[in-house]
Structures are given as structure tokens and as C-alpha cells.
Design a protein that fits this description.
The complex is a heterodimer. Chain A is an all-alpha fold. Chain A is built from 16 helices and no strands.
């Protein structure tokens, strides 16, 4: 007890610095968790939690038995897998490439250029996509038609939704995501490169044997964090792309929670969906972390 | 021991904070209606905004004068009304008057049934304008026999077909009267270069991604589809998409799509784009509210100055006058002006607010909300015919109020614009052959809860059929899925409700 107190008083400044973050989590993350109670109720706002009737697992039963559930889970997992497989490595590769650019001005201007899309909202990006991919008068389709091809209905087809979704993420976020890797690369000991050079390593060899292993912990950490957000794919982005013709592969948990919960006012049911999403995320993070430790990495905790 | 107590105390504190943070009915933070110093009642109004921006104060202050109130508006943009109304209901941040235009939304319906709002039925007859609301209208707007607000009286059926008259004349075509003739016009508009620029760049229809207010539902009326539900003589309930007319309409739309007689991306087109494109001369047939013709003409100014429009409300698939029909989903009920008990505390306050609504329905306030101020926004002749002086000023300062009028027709003052006059005449005519939704005022708990989620299955399948991504089997499979996922339950509940009300 005393020992704890001593270490607390010795490091009080450090603890003080944690305080705002701690308070943030308590207020915005832990307090609202109490609201999860409503997934066991038929919650009606004007009756409040005390007044609303308890219905046990009714909403869970509905969630797991509705045919929508399989669709939502499938769509979410497929999109997540695609994001992980295609998008995740790109910032790493981009960071390694940027790191190899020696001309400082050139490098800075490229960095600025790839950062900019991050600051655009999804509304703008999706609108731009629409203008380009429209069947009636969209630039891309006009070009296809000019070369004698038949127009492709990108926006209303199930085949194009996933590629479009991933490409948009790459365009928007790939540049911005390099920042953390570039930061990790800067702390690599230059002596390692010199030693590698002495051993006659080529540029590619140096990337493979020095840079990549050096940023491996960062990659693992980001991967685990990413997995924690499995079912959290970015509501706004998908919501803007959805329409009647691509819904069967485009509807994901996030968009479903919005339409069922906020638009149709089924607060309890959508809370249930959200709870399920959170639990799955938690389990995956724990698994990924265990796995990372097994392979000799540090993990996130 | 001490530590244990401290822990326990901390835990209890956390729990109680948690509960208080997320539970309980919140008392309204808004100042409720009450008389201000000059004797005017102050009334807050949560209202739907159907225009891009809220109105300025010029007209508002006149309305306040005429009704002897101070009005405080909170505007909700029409596009996000579902989310915003639901969050307002959930957080209890309401106003003295709440405009509810989406009565089929489950949380709105639950709130109504839970008694959040006053039942106004016993009070209506005390006010002359409110007393004039017909019993039919009151019945249609009530839920389980209770009227939770003053019904917004809209036209029963306002849709029809609008066609470019100048294009028809140019190609020597008559005004279409049957769906087949309409198809011929669409074909000619697509293939015969009606704008004469030598390029094949026009289509027949210009539609938007809306199966109700776009072309689909209006066309489906022409094929004899019931509106939303039909009830047979022995009380059997059938959804519209199981009718023959619905399938015929899908085939008709499919033909339009396959031949390129309709804009190919109508499934993702927004209303504003639809109107803009039409005004730019990209197409010659528009299906929607008949009074949209005036907007289209306004939009076309300076781009398509030759544009002449003809409005048609009498198309049939058979050519028989007796088969004329046009859908009415909400049977003329545009929604409710509802008064939450949390804001309107007692009977006395309710009566004051009702008096205000009654005053809104006077000809004087109707004129203000429809046309604006005389000599500023409009001029009037001895026959009470109004001419708008400056359309853009009117759109800015008056139009936002037009959507909030509790009553839309039955006044002597009228538009002198020939197109508007004609639109009003046709809409009035529509009333005599409108197809009503027979279940509109009945209750199905499953429909309130899951109806709109389930409807998506049908909407998606309809689009897929039209675009050739599924066939009749696929569509019927979707209907079966709909039935299994809750549709059967909805039908059973409606049948029971129908029996309970209309008896056997």
C-alpha cells in the first residue's frame, strides 16, 4: 500500500498527464456502456430504462435468426478481409518507397500530395466517384464508349462495389497511413545500414533485412489494432455507396445499425447489433494479441 | 477493510452515475408556451424544412401578428427527418408543436401510442377551422381510435405524367392516353432526336431512385395496382407487390430500361438531378407531382426556352375511362401537428396552441404562407388571382412556409399562372379516382417494428428485376422471403385489425 503510494507521489506528474485520457475514457467510453442494458429491453425513450419493459434475449434471438444476420456478417467479414489483405500492406510499401527517395524537396512534395486526400470527406470522394462512373455521361463510361466498349454500370452492380470500396480507401488513406511507418523508420540505427553495406547488401536487401525487421513491432501493433476494429468498417463511406442493387453485398453492420436504429427507431435492436459487434471485436483483439506473443512479438498489452 | 469500503463506495457511485446518465425521461429544456409581456403567446415549433434554407423573418413577423403569437421555429431538413425526429424523441428535446410527417415510422408510432402527445379529438370542435376537418380525415389520421394531433390536410393524390409538348408537336405525336401510347412517345423521344441537334442524346423518361414518388408507383396505378395493400371482400389482405398490376409495371419499366427509353442510372439518381437533367433537355417525360411542372419550367429558363409542358392525369393501360386510377398512400393525410405533453403542460396551454393552429388555417395566414406579402411577393387582381412578382424572392422567403400549411385547398385565393391553375385542377380531379390505402389507419405491431426493413427486400428485388439482374422467379422468391421474415405476420395482424374495426 505504502509502496504504491510512494511510486504514485514520485511520478505524480506522469499520472497527471494520464488523467485527461482517463477521464475521457470514463466519460465517453465507460459511462455509455451502461446503456447496453437496453438491448435486453423494449426500450422507449419517454419511459426510460426504469420504465421500459424487459424482454430478455428477444433481440438477440431476432438478430441470430434473421436471414439478414448471415448477410451482414458475410459482407462485413469479406470487406474486412479485403481491406486487410489489399489495403493494409500498401502504406508499408509506400513508406518504404518514400524512405528511399533521397531528394528532399521531391520527397516532401510527394508526401504532401499523398496526404491531401485524407482531408477530404467521404461525401466528396463518393460524389466525385459518381461523376466519374455514371452511366449517363460519366467520364469513364464515355471513354469506354468512345473506344467502342459497352458501358459498365459501376454504381449499380454487385461486382464493382468491393473493388470501388477498397480503391477509394486506398486513394484516401494510403498516404496518411504512411506517417506512422515513416516515423518508425527514422529511428532505425544508421550503423545497421552501414554494416549491411559493408557486407555488400544491395538496396533491396537493406530494405528486406534492416528496415522491415526494424518496423516489425509497429506493423504488428497496427495490425492488432486494426483487427480490433474488424466489424467497424466506416459507416459513412459504405452508407453513401449503398443502393437497392448492391445492398446484398454492401449492407454491413454499421449501415444496418444506422437504418434500423436511427431511421426506424428500433433502439434496442440496434444496440444488440452494436453489442454483438463489440464483443466480436474484443475476442479478435485478444486472439490476435495472444498470437503475436506466441510469435515472439510484444503485442499491444 | 477500509480499502474494501472505498472500492464499494466508488463502485456504487459509478453505477448511480451510469444510471442517471443514460436513463430517465428528461424534462424539457425548452421554454414552454406562455404569455410574454405584450400578451402574445410564445410557441415553439419543430418543423420540417422542404427547401434548402429556412425563411427570413419578413413573412414570419406577419404570421405572428395575424395569430398574436411569437413563433420559434426549429427546422429539420426533409432529407434527414427520420434520424432527427427519432433523436428528438429519444432525447426529449421537443417543442410545443411537432410536425410529424412520417407516421409509419416505428419510433414515431410507438411514441404516439405511448401517449407522448395529447389526444386532440375532444377539443377540435371548439375551433371553427379545426371543426371543419372531415370525420374521414380524422379517422384516417388516428391510431387505434385516438387522434394524436391536428391532421395536415393534403391533396389526396397529386401525381401524374408531365410531357414536353413542344417535342410531341415536333414529332407529330398526339398527347398519350394509354400506357402503350406513352411507350411510343418514350421510344420516339429516344430515337427521333426531338431536340433536333442531330445527336442521339435524349431519352423518353427521366426518373429517380424512388419507387413511390418516382415513376413506378404512378405507372403501377395505370396498371390497376392497389395502393400499398388491398383487402378482398372476405377480409383477406394482400400486399400490392403480389398483384398482377405490379408485375406488369415491372415489365413495363424493364422494357423502358432495356430499350434505353429511360435514363440508365435512374436507380441511383436523386430528385434534384432528375429535375435538373429534365430541365436541360435530356428527356421528355417526367412522372411525379403535377405541380412540379412549374418548377421544371423555372429550372429550364435560359437553358431550354422552348420548353412547353403538358400535364396528363388520365392515362390507363386499357383505354377505358372507367379504369382511371391514381394511388394515394396516406389518403390525404400529410401527417400530424402533434403537441407533446412534456412541453404543452396542461389543458389551458393546449387550448392556446390549438387556437394558434386554428388561426393558421384562416385565409389570411394561408395567403401569407402560400404567396407571401402583397406587392412584395405577389400581386392580386379582382378575381383573387395571384401573380408571383419575383420567383426567387418567393422561393427564399415564402416557400419554406408552404410546406407547413395545415390545410392546402379550399380557399378562394388562387394562382393566376395557367400551369399552376391547371395542375391544381388536375389534382382536384385526381381525387375522384384515387386509390386509397385501405389499411392506412390500422395497426400492425410487426409492420411498425420491422415493416420498413422488410420493405427493402421488395424494393431491392423490384429494381433488380427492372435492371435484368433477376427474373420473375427471383422476384417471387424475394416475396416468399418477405413473407417468411415477417410479412405473413403483418398480413395476419392487419387482417385481425381489419376485422376488429370493420367487422364481419
Amino acid at each position: 500500500m505504502l509502496r504504491h503510494f510512494k511510486s504514485l507521489s514520485r511520478n505524480k506528474l506522469l499520472y497527471l498527464m494520464i488523467l485527461p485520457g482517463f477521464v475521457y475514457f470514463v466519460i465517453f467510453k465507460y459511462f455509455p456502456m451502461g446503456g447496453l442494458i437496453i438491448s435486453f429491453q423494449d426500450y422507449q425513450p419517454y419511459l426510460g430504462i426504469q420504465g421500459s419493459p424487459w424482454v430478455g434475449f428477444k433481440h438477440f434471438v431476432r438478430l441470430f435468426t434473421e436471414p439478414t444476420f448471415a448477410m451482414l456478417l458475410r459482407n462485413t467479414l469479406i470487406l474486412f478481409a479485403l481491406e486487410l489483405a489489399i489495403f493494409f500492406p500498401i502504406p508499408i510499401i509506400l513508406a518504404l518507397m518514400l524512405n528511399e527517395v533521397r531528394h528532399k524537396m521531391f520527397r516532401n512534395s510527394i508526401q504532401t500530395m499523398v496526404y491531401i486526400p485524407h482531408f477530404m470527406s467521404w461525401v466528396i470522394i463518393v460524389s466525385i466517384t459518381y461523376v466519374f462512373l455514371n452511366v449517363d455521361g460519366g467520364v469513364v463510361n464515355e471513354i469506354i464508349a468512345a473506344f467502342g466498349g459497352s458501358k459498365i454500370s459501376f454504381l449499380t452492380s454487385t461486382e464493382w462495389l468491393r473493388p470501388m470500396y477498397i480503391l477509394q480507401i486506398i486513394w484516401k488513406e494510403a498516404g496518411w497511413s504512411t506517417i506512422i511507418y515513416l516515423a518508425a523508420i527514422t529511428v532505425v540505427d544508421p550503423q545497421l545500414y552501414e554494416a549491411a553495406e559493408m557486407d555488400g547488401a544491395s538496396r533491396l536487401r537493406k530494405i528486406w533485412h534492416v528496415t522491415l525487421p526494424a518496423i516489425r513491432p509497429v506493423i504488428i501493433t497496427l495490425l492488432i489494432l486494426k483487427i480490433g476494429n474488424t466489424l467497424e468498417l466506416g459507416f459513412e463511406h459504405m452508407y453513401l455507396l449503398l443502393n437497392s442493387l448492391n445492398r446484398e453485398i454492401g449492407e454491413i453492420f454499421d449501415t444496418y445499425i444506422f437504418t434500423a436504429g436511427l431511421k426506424n427507431g428500433q433502439l434496442s435492436f440496434s444496440t444488440t447489433v452494436g453489442l454483438f459487434k463489440g464483443v466480436v471485436g474484443l475476442i479478435l483483439v485478444i486472439l490476435a494479441n495472444r498470437l503475436a506473443k506466441k510469435f515472439g512479438e510484444d503485442g499491444v498489452y | 477493510m477500509k480499502r474494501k469500503i472505498a472500492k464499494l463506495a466508488a463502485l456504487t457511485l459509478c453505477c448511480s452515475l451510469l444510471l442517471s446518465a443514460c436513463g430517465g425521461t428528461k424534462s424539457g429544456a425548452n421554454p414552454s408556451s406562455g404569455a410574454s409581456a405584450d400578451g402574445r403567446a410564445s410557441i415553439s415549433w419543430l418543423n420540417i424544412l422542404q427547401t434548402p434554407s429556412p425563411p427570413t423573418d419578413t413573412v414570419l413577423s406577419k404570421i405572428e401578428e395575424a395569430t398574436n403569437t411569437d413563433i420559434k421555429f426549429s427546422w429539420i431538413p426533409d432529407a434527414s427527418k427520420e434520424e432527427r425526429l427519432n433523436t428528438s424523441l429519444a432525447s426529449g428535446s421537443l417543442a410545443d408543436i411537432v410536425t410529424l410527417t412520417i407516421l409509419d415510422n416505428s419510433s414515431v408510432r410507438n411514441a404516439l401510442k405511448a401517449g407522448v402527445f395529447w389526444d386532440v379529438a375532444p377539443y377540435l370542435d371548439e375551433y371553427p377551422n379545426l371543426a371543419a376537418i372531415s370525420q374521414d380525415m380524422r379517422r384516417s389520421a388516428s391510431i387505434e381510435g385516438k387522434l394524436y394531433g391536428v391532421p395536415l390536410q393534403k391533396q389526396v393524390a397529386r401525381n401524374g405524367v408531365i410531357v414536353r409538348k413542344d417535342w410531341l408537336d415536333k414529332l407529330g405525336l398526339p398527347v398519350p392516353n394509354t400506357t402503350d401510347e406513352l411507350m411510343q412517345v418514350a421510344k420516339a423521344f429516344t430515337e427521333q432526336d426531338p431536340d433536333g441537334n442531330g445527336v442521339k442524346d435524349t431519352t423518353g423518361f427521366m426518373d429517380r431512385s424512388d419507387l413511390v414518388f418516382g415513376a413506378f408507383k404512378t405507372l403501377s396505378s395505370y396498371f390497376g395496382t392497389p395502393s400499398v395493400w388491398s383487402v378482398s371482400e372476405d377480409g383477406q389482405v394482400t400486399p400490392e407487390f403480389e398483384s398482377e398490376g405490379y408485375l406488369k409495371t415491372m415489365d413495363y419499366m424493364k422494357e423502358l430500361y432495356d430499350n434505353g427509353y429511360i435514363n440508365q442510372d435512374f436507380a441511383v439518381t436523386a430528385k434534384t438531378d432528375q429535375q435538373q437533367n429534365f430541365a436541360q433537355g435530356k428527356a421528355g417525360i417526367y412522372v411525379g407531382a403535377l405541380f412540379d411542372s412549374k418548377n421544371l419550367l423555372n429550372l429550364a429558363k435560359g437553358i431550354q426556352d422552348d420548353m412547353e409542358l403538358v400535364m396528363i392525369n388520365g392515362i390507363t393501360s386499357t383505354g377505358n375511362e372507367s379504369d382511371r386510377a391514381i394511388w394515394s398512400t396516406s389518403n390525404g393525410v400529410g401527417g400530424l401537428l402533434a403537441f407533446p405533453k412534456s412541453e404543452v403542460k396542461d389543458e389551458e396551454e393546449l387550448k392556446r396552441v390549438l387556437k394558434f393552429v386554428n388561426d393558421l388555417m384562416s385565409e389570411e395566414v394561408y395567403t401569407l404562407m402560400t404567396y407571401g406579402l402583397e406587392d412584395v411577393h405577389y400581386t392580386i387582381d379582382e378575381n383573387k388571382a395571384v401573380t408571383i412578382k419575383d420567383t426567387s424572392l418567393w422561393q427564399q422567403e415564402v416557400q419554406p412556409f408552404a410546406g407547413s400549411r395545415p390545410k392546402e385547398s379550399g380557399f378562394e385565393i388562387h394562382d393566376s399562372d395557367p400551369l399552376r391553375k391547371e395542375a391544381n385542377r388536375l389534382i382536384e380531379e385526381n381525387e375522384s379516382f384515387a386509390v386509397l390505402n385501405p389499411l392506412y389507419s390500422l395497426e400492425s405491431p410487426t409492420n411498425s417494428e420491422q415493416g420498413s426493413e422488410l420493405q427493402k427486400m421488395i424494393t431491392d428485388a423490384t429494381y433488380k428485376y427492372i435492371l435484368g439482374k433477376t427474373d420473375l422467379n427471383g422476384f417471387q422468391q424475394a416475396v416468399q422471403n418477405w413473407r417468411k421474415a415477417g410479412g405473413d405476420k403483418i398480413i395476419a395482424e392487419y387482417e385481425a385489425a381489419y376485422k376488429a374495426v370493420y367487422g364481419k
